[in-house]
Amino acid sequence: MPWNKARTGVFATLIGCTFASTAQAASEHEMAVGGAALYQVCGQKHPEKELSLEQYISLHPHMSTKLANDIREYSSQPKHKAELEDTVLRMRTEATQDLLEVVCDSYFRDAKDRE
Questions:
Q1: List of E strands, the chain
Q2: Which of 26, 55, 112, 115 has its CA 20 to 30 A from that of 4?
Q3: How many CB atoms lie within 10 A of CB 34?
Q4: Structure confidence at residue 3 as a pLDDT band (50, 70, 90)
Q5: Are 15 and 31 in contact (CB under 8 A)?
Q6: pTM for this entry
Q7: Taking 50 as the threshold, does the pLDDT of residue 23 lie above it?
């Protein structure tokens, strides 16, 4: 499916837009925090729909094990709460809302298709 191949690029682009303060690529840390934030943003956009963190991660087949583990950590560890909340806020105000809507909808649709 073409969207599955493009998802990694869209994921990275959204994270890059959220942290865009220089022309440099997002760091591994920013990718992990941004990935956890994107998962939260999608959950907030569609609270009536179910998408577990593991389903979200599985929708990124090219995601490294380290990044997946880092996203799990940032999503679950209270010590990261403030940074994660700040990133969610930045993503909701800086990222293109139409793009977030398309990405989030694709996660829920593809997760449902895998059931």
A1: none
A2: 26
A3: 29
A4: very low
A5: yes
A6: 0.78
A7: no
